[in-house]
Design goal:
The complex is a heterodimer of chains A (146) and B (566). Chain A is α/β, with parallel strands linked by helices. Chain A contains five helices and five strands. Chain A has a five-stranded parallel sheet, sandwiched between helices. In chain A, helix 2 packs across helix 3. Classes of the chains: A alpha/beta (146), B alpha/beta (566).
């Protein structure tokens, strides 16, 4: 489907970082977002931070979504945000979802993760939030590209 | 024929039912309409309003149920079941480094646990050492890190491996972890014929679900069958495979898919073992299984009963097993992790209790109960103890363990057992037509089926066709109390540092020549297609690390990556 740049569909990179094999959530989300009209790129399992950043830039995505069930969310968030910054892609918002303790949500936000979705979050809520995040970014930091 | 009802009796029941439906029911329905037009099980099996003897179509008591300890084992594999010995209370545990896990294991033994079960971290699960770049930040989080023989010795410090049985949830690196374990036992003075326990070693389900695959499917099965063959010949009390539906279910499969895919995996391993010239009765008694116990109570009980009956039939009729033990489906159960939610987390205790009850009513041999804090993290000691105590309450207070297979004869339970069985056979037929599970996995068939089911379930939750308490109904703003749930805390960075340091120390201090020769011999043996276990064992004793041994095997067998589809 070709559409002009300005009205293109929101493009999301759904990523699995490290050795965590729990991909049920990532695949359900990828499909649900596609059904909701998003353009979705799924990385598959066992990606390095560098691979995720490269894919995000290459695919020119609007949002990076990290699915995490391993408990290394702080480590991943820290490295990913840093690597994005270094690669000049620090404006791409990062969201996370998965088995993340409630007490870790605020610290993740403080680090710069835009949103954290815990298990049980309705898909409609995720869709709405991602739309907000994408439009905020377009408004604040339009990327002169394409 | 041992049909319980004569044609006359059935006719009489049929007439009475018709009368009830025509004369009694309509008035009730108009006054009190039912909550749903069509109720279904969690797996989507449509349910009737009520079940009667008429639903037990062709129900021959002796043929379908018989007695516990007798073919087809629907009522249980032992004649005395829990009246003689309760199921093994086996709590899956492990976190941090070997020191932390050793402490936790000893705590659980003191609290009355009767079997051990090791959870490994992701690096160990996929067979890389703690200093592998992909493992960074993950060491010891979801389980214990065990990259060397030295680590395994610490895990079992002051635990006599001749007195406990241990389950190890490990798949592609199974030959390595098994070699660690038997070497530790040997050094404790425990002879091979006294080493008891289970190694998961089920690679097929890794492609369908758990996704800790390493080698391509053919090679993965070859190595797993090496472990099975070697164990059957050397470790008479060891279960060298735990054919697992658990992960398949957790990935979103229905109860029927879980059952069918697990049996189809088992059939594949049986064929592979027979192809090596082994007699069915030589190895079949050592095969063990592992299922999920989800929240839809009766469906789970029906699944367990159907599983036993189906496996007995497969072993006897398909493969010509003669020993009753070969026909036993012995299984471990874990309550459903995927049924637990972070919202109002305490109510997970209730879910787990109900699921554990279903496992016991279904006749499991061992059981793990999840802790209420698992949507957040590996369980705290406090939460793990509540989960263990849940089993002890079921065992000692409720009385459900005092009569064997107490739900047999329930029209509903027997009907549902038949229904689950019939649906599972259809899947198995389909997989057989594809050439068995190895071929089906290569085609991606079970993978797609599970993904479809998982998406369907999610949509049902979104549309509130399925109510999940605290999640899509009865929601609350998270109270401060949730933030105060005492989660397991340990210094992960310190553990990671310590584990990296230890593996480097092991690498630096071993007999380098013996080490390199052992790895070299392993690689050559793998190239020749020999059973790799004796060579892995030698490499382990020469202090080759997990990552090095897996590296040698990867050089010969290659690696696998799932195409990134959704």
């Amino acid at each position: 489907m070709q559409s002009p740049r300005t009205t293109r569909r929101i493009k999301v990179l759904v990523a699995k970082v490290g050795l965590d094999g729990h991909d049920r959530g990532a695949k359900v989300i990828a499909r649900a977002l596609r059904d909701a009209g998003f353009e979705v790129v799924y990385t598959g399992l066992r990606q390095t931070i560098d691979q995720v950043v490269a894919a995000a830039i290459q695919e020119d995505v609007d949002i990076i979504g990290i699915n995490q069930h391993e408990g290394s969310h702080f480590h991943i968030a820290r490295k990913l945000l840093q690597k994005l910054e270094e690669s000049g892609a620090g404006d791409i918002p990062v969201v996370m979802g998965g088995s993340i303790p409630l007490v870790d949500v605020e610290p993740l936000r403080a680090m710069g993760v835009k949103e954290v979705f815990l298990p049980g979050t309705p898909i409609a809520e995720i869709v709405k939030r991602l739309e907000e995040i994408a439009s905020e970014r377009k408004h604040l930091a339009p990327r002169a590209k394409g | 024929m041992a049909d319980l009802y004569s044609e006359e009796a059935k006719e009489e029941i049929r007439r009475a039912l018709k009368k009830w439906e025509e004369q009694v029911l309509p008035e009730w329905l108009s006054r009190m309409p039912e909550r749903e037009e069509q109720f279904t099980t969690l797996s989507g099996i449509p349910l009737k309003r009520i079940y009667t003897p008429l639903d037990l179509k062709d129900h021959d008591y002796l043929q379908k149920l018989g007695f516990p300890g007798e073919y087809p084992f629907t009522r249980g594999i032992h004649a005395t079941m829990y009246r003689a010995r309760l199921w093994t209370m086996r709590m899956f545990s492990g976190f941090g480094g070997p020191e932390e896990t050793n402490e936790r294991l000893k705590m659980l033994i003191r609290a009355g646990e009767t079997g051990l079960s090791l959870a490994f971290d992701n690096a160990t699960l996929v067979g890389v050492d703690p200093d592998d770049p992909l493992a960074e930040g993950s060491i010891g989080i979801v389980g214990v890190s065990v990259p060397t023989l030295v680590d395994m010795e610490v895990v079992f410090k002051d635990i006599n491996l001749g007195e406990v049985t241990t389950n190890m949830t490990i798949n592609p690196p199974a030959p390595v972890l098994l070699s660690f374990y038997v070497t530790v036992a040997e050094r404790q003075g425990v002879p091979y014929d006294k080493i008891g326990g289970t190694i998961q070693n089920d690679p097929l389900k890794e492609f369908i679900a758990q996704k800790t695959y390493v080698f391509p499917p053919e090679a993965a099965v070859k190595i797993a069958v090496d472990v099975m063959e070697w164990s059957v010949k050397n470790l008479p009390k060891w279960n060298p495979v735990s054919i697992s539906g658990y992960h398949i279910r957790e990935a979103g499969a229905t109860a029927v898919q879980e059952l069918a895919f697990t049996l189809a995996d088992g059939i594949e391993y049986v064929r592979q073992l027979r192809a090596r010239g082994m007699d069915i009765d030589e190895f079949a008694p050592r095969l063990s299984f592992f299922f999920d116990s989800h929240i839809n109570f009766f469906e789970e009980i029906a699944k367990f009963r159907a599983a036993r009956r189906m496996w007995a039939k497969i072993m006897k009729e398909w493969f010509g097993a003669r020993k009753p033990r070969s026909m036993w489906m012995r299984f471990h159960v874990q309550t459903a992790g995927c049924s637990l939610y972070p919202q109002q987390p305490w109510i997970n205790i209730v879910r787990t209790a109900i699921e554990a009850l279903a496992a016991v009513l279904g006749g499991c041999q061992s059981l793990h109960t999840n802790s209420f804090d698992e949507p957040f993290r590996v369980p705290s000691e406090f939460a793990a103890k509540i989960a263990l105590r849940t089993q002890q309450i079921i065992a000692h207070e409720t009385g459900v363990a005092d009569v064997i297979d107490p739900l047999a004869g329930s029209y509903f339970v027997e009907w549902l057992t038949d229904e689950v069985e019939e649906r599972a056979w259809k899947y198995i037929d389909k997989i057989e037509r594809m050439g068995g599970m190895l071929e089906a996995v290569k085609k991606g068939f079970p993978q797609r089926e599970v993904e479809e089911a998982s998406y369907r379930f999610q949509k049902e939750v979104e549309e509130k066709k399925r109510i999940i308490v605290g999640v899509n109904e009865y929601r609350e703003e998270e109270s401060e109390d949730v933030r105060k749930v005492p989660l397991l805390e340990f210094d992960q960075q310190e553990v990671e540092r310590r584990q990296i340091e230890r593996v480097r120390k092991v690498r630096a201090s071993r007999d380098q020549e013996r080490w390199s020769r052992a790895l070299e011999e392993l690689e050559r043996a793998a190239e020749r297609g020999e059973n790799v276990v004796p060579y892995v064992l030698r490499a382990v004793k020469a202090y080759a690390t997990l990552g090095e041994i897996m590296g040698a095997l990867k050089r010969v067998y290659g690696t696998y990556a799932e195409p990134p589809y959704y």
